[in-house]
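Q: I'm a student working through a structural biology exercise. My instructor gave each of us a protein and asked us to get a predicted structure, then write a short paragraph describing it. Mine is Transcription factor WD40-like family. I'm not confident about reading structure output yet, so if you can add a plain explanation after the tokens, that would really help. Here is the sequence I was given:
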Amino acid sequence: MSTQLDPLCSLIGVPNRAFHIRNSNTEELVFIGGTLTDPDAVLGWHLLVDLSEHVGRIRITSDDLAVGFTRSRVLVFNLRNQMILGEEEFMRPVNVGTTDAYNKALMFVNSRGVANVRQVEGLEEICRFMARGGSLGCINGGYSFISTNGGVRVWELVHGEYLYTLRERIWDVTAMIADERYVAACTSDNTIHLWDFGAR
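A: Happy to help. First, here is the predicted structure for Transcription factor WD40-like family. I'll explain a few features afterward.
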């Protein structure tokens, strides 16, 4: 395996084989395993006929850690040595569309609208805040962006303090992503909205 791992991941609904990870340069299969989708295996197979909801999400951090989410659990594993570093079953189901991981932090919002920000390694809580009505979300190095009720709300990730709502109102968000400067969202009418967040 090269020193710069560039993984390709897929999430499938087969018990004990939740992740298939390949080296994107050589296409070598480097990991198969994980019980992440066992409680949700049936939902995974429903994707073949019904694409109405997010069943799982995988994010790769800058430390070559993979973070996988379903409604019922989160799993963190190291792509280099293929070791599972942490796993937790949620007490309440989470909205998979609001899950994300970036660098050292991950975020999820449960069915009661409580957003929880954790450290990727060890899954220790950093902060929590209320994000009722959130449909999709993402984070960057210091902020959380959650699409709620026609707008994108912003929280900081250290104390969970609500800051403001991005100026442009948007509805029916289908995808969101952020880096240290920009936030982008796509809506159901295939329009891409881009904000220069500029929180430096």
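A: Here are two points you could use in your paragraph. The helical segments are 41-46. The first helix runs from residue 41 to 46. It's a good idea to check both against the output above yourself.
Q: Great, thank you!
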